Amino acid sequence: MIDLGKFYADVQRCLKHERADNNENYDGLRACRAVKKLFVSYFRGLENIAEPLAEYWEQTYILQSKNLEDEPQKSNIDWLANVIALINGELEADRNFPQKDWVEINNVVNAEAEDIPIDVLSSIMSTLVERKVL
């Protein structure tokens, strides 16, 4: 089980280190890639779903940003936290994804279903049904 509070704190530390390690020259894309790497590192044994979802996040939300130098925005960090909550089986009713994201999540999970532990797969699929994605 991944603690969301720890994830948010680790993201802030990651962003702080990105700035400090580069002579205070902040690069939003570099920072987002560090956050993406951090996100995937939380999913030992589930990299097969974490990596494509992190890649989708970067392609859809980061690279399309009009203010790349200010990324990752809180909403984009929240998106990753929502994925963590979904995989944990703790996605609260007030947390949601746009329909196109649900479709992508469903596609990734279906593509990797045979390699996902049954309890995780069952939890994700239950949420997909509950949210009327399936």
SSE blueprint:
Elements lengths: L3 H17 L7 H14 L5 H16 L11 H15 L10 H14 L5 H13 L4
Helix pairs in contact: 1-2, 1-4, 2-3, 3-4, 3-5
- Helix/strand structural class: mainly alpha
Shape: globular
Which strand-content bin applies to the residues? Answer: under 5%
Order of helix and strand elements from N to C terminus: HHHHHH
Return residue spans where pLDDT drops below 50 for at least 5 consecutive residues: none
Largest sheet: none
As a whole number of angstroms, the C-alpha radius of gyration is 15 Å
Give the count of structural domains. 1
Distance between the termini: 25 Å
pLDDT averaged over residues: 95
Strand tally is 0
Q: What share of the residues lie within helices?
A: 55-70%
Number of helical segments with 4 or more residues? 6
